[in-house]
Design brief:
The structure is a homodimer of 222-residue chains. Chain A is of the alpha+beta class and 222 residues long. Chain A is 41% helix and 17% strand. The first copy, chain A, contains 8 helices and 8 strands, in the order H-H-H-E-E-H-H-H-E-E-H-E-E-E-H-E. Chain A starts with a helix and ends with a strand. At the A-B interface, helix 5 and helix 6 of A face helix 5 and helix 6 of B. Chain A binds a DNA duplex (30 and 30 nucleotides) through helix 3.
Chain lengths: 222, 222
DNA sequence: ATATATAATTAGGTTTGCCTAAAAATATAA
DNA sequence: TTATATTTTTAGGCAAACCTAATTATATAT
């Protein structure tokens, strides 16, 4: 049985692997987990002993199939609980993360299954992130970053890369949420900031912001 | 902030104090927590340092007001989650204990409050145990043990002292649940076992069983 | 190619929470 | 009351996870 700490390491490795290919460095993991490199080295060795990660000294870690399976279950639980908190308990989407970080470690296969049923087997969490099914399969949608679009493009908001409370509050303020319709009306070449049209309002977005917004690019018949 | 282990000790002390007066012995606590006396002594000292218990070497522990407050919050969370599991997630009442033991340690005041609202501010958990409110007040009902009744008495089942899976399964088999109507039709003097009438069925109950069933004694107009 | 900088690992320590075995205190029985 | 039994505490250890400081590998720059 995995400890909470071991689960957190697996989840962190999984999330970093979603972004970059290849082995993950000790320091990158330490940063993500807000701990020190020495602690990471130690834990990685334990996980390698348990065949949950492949580890080569000085060359980083990668999840094994078993490790990925565990990680996906934790992600599944995290996202189901986030859905529960927002949809049933009136949490705002910027308040759920820390609580879900706790709830994801509850060990009860029946609980996960019954919660999934109770919630109507949702496919996406409140931030638009896909919820893995019981076998670890992710529903995948053809997502792009808003920053990849061109002037004149239309899109529908489908998720966010940064789930920090400050970013989500910023989105709330700009009235940007899941399924919000967006039209790109201008891209400033010098800093790649853009102006988008949302519900007839002109909203300015920095490159940092547009990088963190996932959209589905749609073609509009004129 | 309290660790999970500290919370479990407070809860155990609270539950034992409900049953017997006075200081609680190290060995009694060790038994309840399925650990060793030496470990208990150690933890008790930590809790005493934190002013959560009063402790006198060789004379047992008692909760302080602060300690009781913490214990009641844990009991509140435990029972709210049990209610949730049974009423919303289709758990049977004999399956909820271990999961609730985990869920009770989730730290989020908002979660507790919103869950309470979501569930309709229930007063009793699925076993008939009272759920403390946010201030630690217990709704109290005038409960007796079924074993205290006399032949001919009528009563309504209001709770159980033993929440073990085996006892709850036994109750299920006898079709005894919360609010079940019971009439005592015979008490065997030599072993204090009794025969009760439930929904026109004669059900034999050992003293052990009747000791663990709480009832509200009612007067029937004939 | 060699020196320097950066990153990773090892060494050695801490805290929490558990353990066993020995010692001390209290309770029970002759 | 004194001996015996039981309970409690103390002493000393262990594993999980963390830490800092020192060492060793690897990467970078001259």
């Amino acid at each position: 049985m995995l400890t909470q700490s071991e689960e957190n390491y697996l989840k962190a490795i999984f999330h970093i692997q979603q972004e970059v290919e290849g082995g993950i460095s000790t320091s990158r993991l330490a940063e993500k987990l807000e701990t020190k490199a020495a602690s990471v080295t130690e834990m990685i060795k334990r996980l390698a002993d348990k065949k949950l990660v492949d580890y080569q000294k000085y060359y980083g870690v990668q999840l094994t199939d078993m490790g990925r399976k565990h990680a996906l279950l934790i992600v599944r639980k995290h996202r189901l609980w986030e859905f529960f908190l927002v949809e049933r308990l009136n949490f705002n989407w910027d308040e759920v993360h820390e609580v879900a970080e706790q709830l994801e470690h509850i060990k009860s296969p029946k609980l996960v299954e019954e919660l999934d049923i109770f919630l109507g087997r949702p496919e996406y969490d409140p931030h638009g992130d896909p919820i893995p099914d019981a076998n670890g399969n992710l529903p995948k949608s053809p997502k792009k970053r808003l920053s990849q679009l061109k002037t004149g493009d239309h899109a529908i908001c489908k998720g966010f890369n940064d789930n920090s409370s400050s970013f989500l509050k910023f989105l709330d303020k700009q009235e940007i949420g899941l399924d919000t319709q967006i039209e790109v009306i201008h891209i400033e070449s010098f800093d790649e900031s853009m102006t988008v049209l949302i519900d007839k309002r002109e909203v300015p977005l920095s490159k940092t912001a547009s990088d963190n917004i996932y959209v589905e690019h749609i073609t509009v018949e004129v």
